[in-house]
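Before relying on records like the one below, remember that each one covers exactly one chain. Contacts with other chains, cofactors or solvent are not represented anywhere in the record.
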Amino acid sequence: MLTAIIPKLPMRDKAATKAFYIDQLGFSEIADYGDYLLIRKDQIEIHFFLFAALDPSQNYGQVYIRTKHITDLYQGLLDRKVPIHPNGHLETKPWGQQEFALLDPDSNLLTFGQDI
């Protein structure tokens, strides 16, 4: 029986990753194992592995995060001046989702979506 999925994303600089996810997105740290970082917000957990040689322009890491109250989440990020992906502003998609997207410091794409 499957119970959860936890994405593992690359990070070049743990301090930058923590600053983005904890300070800007409101995640909290679960554990820090040097080259491996675990964070959580609500029911979402994300793990990061150190990949110092990562070229962000070649990173295709992506996570789709389902949410509730997406307009409040989106506005809160705008209020904190978190950059939204230029092609990822909040909009209704033909597949029945309201979505927006942003990039973390390593160009991992985070897409947030809510059923409409």
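The first strand starts at residue 8 and ends at 11.
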